Structure formats: structure tokens, C-alpha cells
Amino acid sequence: MSVALKNPLASLEQLEVTISRRDGISEELEEDLRHLGAELIQSAGILLKLPQVAMATAQVLFQRFFYMASLKEFGIVKAYTMKDMAIAAEMQILRKLGFIVHVQLPYNLMINYLRILGLEEHRAITRRAWNYLNDGLRTTIYVTHEPSTIACAAIWLACLEESVKLPTDLGKEWWLLFDVDSVHFKNAAAHIKRLYYRKLDKANLPLYKLSNEQS
Fold this sequence. Notes:
About 0% of the residues have low confidence. The protein folds into 2 domains: about 90 residues; about 90 residues, Cyclin-like (Cyclin A, domain 1, Orthogonal Bundle), CATH 1.10.472. The protein starts with 11 loop residues before the first helix and ends in an 18-residue tail after the last helix. Helix 3 packs antiparallel against helix 4, helix 7 packs antiparallel against helix 8 and helix 9 crosses helix 10. It is an all-alpha fold. Helices cover about 55% and strands about 0% of the residues. The protein is built from 10 helices and no strands. InterPro entries: Cyclin-like_dom (IPR013763), Cyclin-like_sf (IPR036915), Cyclin/Ssn8 (IPR043198). This is Cyclin-L1. One of its GO terms (molecular function) is cyclin-dependent protein serine/threonine kinase regulator activity.
């Protein structure tokens, strides 16, 4: 018998005022640095020819870590280049995460949901939904929403793009099949779509430990 472990999600308190924001980092800068960090992980994974599951898990743990630690204390590039301190860095991450490093990803759920909806043969929707799941890794939705909610968000966006209507009759709404709240999956979808309308200005991001700015 297999037991699926639930992903630990960020609390309302952690979302309202993150540790980084308490350290003086603006909400906009934190969002950009999270985005950049996830991109660095994805790029490194591609260079190392790692499977997508490994890259996705690393990106989720990255997002989770910075709800427990400050970007001012742990700079992205600083940690990224500390090859000789890999073990020490790993222990820092494990301690901050409380040694909880399991990650349930929504990819299989998304495929199963498409099958239930009779859309598993619709290649364009499958491809778009898969891409939305990948893009979502550059946001915080994997630590603020359940995998089922994220899967529904990706499917909804893909169907909108392909002009495919899903059941929405009262009491027979498609998302009820998966025990998901429409407000929640639409919120996750909005976070994904925000990526496409907000350009990441990498040239002006502080790519070092922020506390050393004045030194």
C-alpha cells in the first residue's frame, strides 16, 4: 500500500510577512529573486541532464527554504558558488526545512485529471498544461497550494488557450471531481500568468549576499 505524503504549505503568517521582508527586502525584489533562483536551478539541471522531476523537486525545496530563511542571510549566487561548502550548505537547508524534504508534484495528477475529463488525447492541452506546471515552478504556488489545485490551474489555463469548454453546470463543475476549490485554482493560475506580463530585470538584481552591500 502506498501512502502519499502531503506537501507542507506556507502558513498565512509566513505569506503575509516573509522573513526576507522583515529583513528589509521588498515584496517585488523577493519575487524576482525567487524567480531567478528557480531559473538557475532549471538551467543547472538541464546542463547536468537531470530528469524534470529532480529539477522540479529542487525548485520546490528552494521556494520552501526561503519561507524559513531570509534572502538577506542566504544570497542565491553566494550559495550557488560555494562548491567547497556543499555539505555545510546542505545541512543549513535541511535544518531550515526541519528535515522535511519530500515533495509531491502535480504532473501525474494532471495527466490523470485529463484522462477523467476525456482530454488525455488532446495533445495541445496536455502540452500546454505541462508547460504551465513547469512555469509555475518559478513562482511560489508549489508551497502555497496543494498539488491537486496546481494541476487544475494548469488544465484550466490550457483549456482557455485552446478554447475547450469544461463542465460548469451548477453542482457539476469539473473541479468538484477533484475536490478542488475554484477560487484556489484560479488564484494559482493568476500567479502563473503573472510571469508572462512581468519582465524579470536580471541586470539590476543584486546577485550576492545583500548584507554585504555596504562592505
